[in-house]
Amino acid sequence: MQTYFIELSYLLASVLFILGLKGLSHPETAKRGMHLAEFGMLMAIIGTLMHHEIVTYTWILSGLVIGSLIGLAMGFWVPMTAMPQRTALSHAFGAFAAALVGVSEFYRHGGHVDKITMSALGFEVMLGALTTTGSLLAFAKLQGLVRGTPVTYKGQNIFNMALLATTIGIFVYLIVVPGSLPLFFVMTGLALVFGLLLVMPIGSADMPVVMSLLNSYAGLASAATGFVLNNKVLIIAGTLDGFSGFILSILMCRAMNRSITNVLFGAFGSAETAAAGGAQQGVMREVSLEDIATQLAYARQVVFVPGYGMATAQAQHAVRELANTLEKRGVTVKYGIHPVAGRMPGHMNVLLAEANVPYSSLYELEQINPEFPSTDVAVVIGANDVVNPDARDNPGSPIAGMPILEVDRSKSVVVLKRGQGKGFSGLENPLFFKEVTGMLYGDAKDTLTRMIQAVQQA
Ligand code: NAP
Predict the structure, then answer these.
(1) Whole-model pTM?
(2) Cβ(408) to ligand 1 under 6 A?
(3) What angle in degrees, to the nearest 10, is found between the helix axes of 115-142 and 156-176?
């Protein structure tokens, strides 16, 4: 009866995870998807707690209480802008748990496990260990605790590959000749070091891709844990996590017109690649808030293009308010959303949804680009790389080929940013020097709040 209940709760949890993932694929169903997945996790936990092998609940309950309290505090206090580093921490925790389970299983059997279990266990520990240190370094880079730009040196890729090959070599040896505890710990140690070396040469602009790759590794490590513990829901959830993370990495790379190998080994964002963008000639034309307010008030169509700066300024509510004010005056307002604007997939969608911007006003890159020539004013709010025309016009640019929002084809462009700061790629943006462009300096939220008043008075 007990086994029957456990299997049933695992089946239900697996179905809910799949439905949850499906829900997450669209902004309108994302919330429901999240709730379904949460309920699935509850089912999986309840099922696991029913296992008759559990001798005492003391440790489990203390872990549950401490973990829930930390999770709750993070949910309340971590701002949306710090979501990428928070996610990196979660990956580190998940992968560390998987690695610890593997180590304890190996230790428990004194290293004498059959070949199949050893394959799953070694895979779990190796992937879990490298994901733990890799994710911790990603966290430190994104949080600004260490330098965010790539750290490179001569022969780096060869050294990293040699280290990985040695780690895999020990893993294979342990499958064939099991039982060596010292070798097992050497393999674990090397995997921990490899995680750091893997993330070290990766630049800040590529961190989201790396994180989603690490997410994929953490998922696969959990799936391997499922094989070791003979736990079906862990196998299913881990595989779903592993492959969705991998697909997401590929999609992000595609949106930036990059390959995974280029992200992992290209040291994009380093001093050399940034310099390849070249210095820009000309001056940036500063415009007055009042002039832009008048332009907006009498425009037929205005397109807002949000970027990372809107997220840091938390300007989404002010954007929505300005849009309301303009719409009341009969102006058509649309939002152009780039797939990699901000610092995580769907970043802009989440923020704008939080400010109750209707989904019908959000336009994807392919939908909005043909609209720019008939747009009176394109308002770029803290976006930089995603509107950089060099990606389209300069084959020598490190971001050449990356699809962009072609705001420079509009009748007029106004860029809201604090100063002359570069985008995440560290490249100069020729858009800011174009005749059609006016620069409105200041924090985006502050500028937009003043703009609302100015439009009302226009
Ligand atoms: P971006 O290129 O990073 O530019 C953001 C701009 O916002 C900066 O130039 C900055 O200029 C301005 N800014 C910062 N704080 C501001 C504030 N408080 N008020 C006004 N402006 C502010 O952003 P993006 O155009 O959104 O491009 C995203 C980048 O991340 C791309 O390079 C993309 O490839 C990369 N990326 C994203 C993802 C993803 O999933 N979204 C994944 C991988 C990579 P000032 O300092 O002068 O203000």
Answers:
(1) 0.79
(2) no
(3) 150
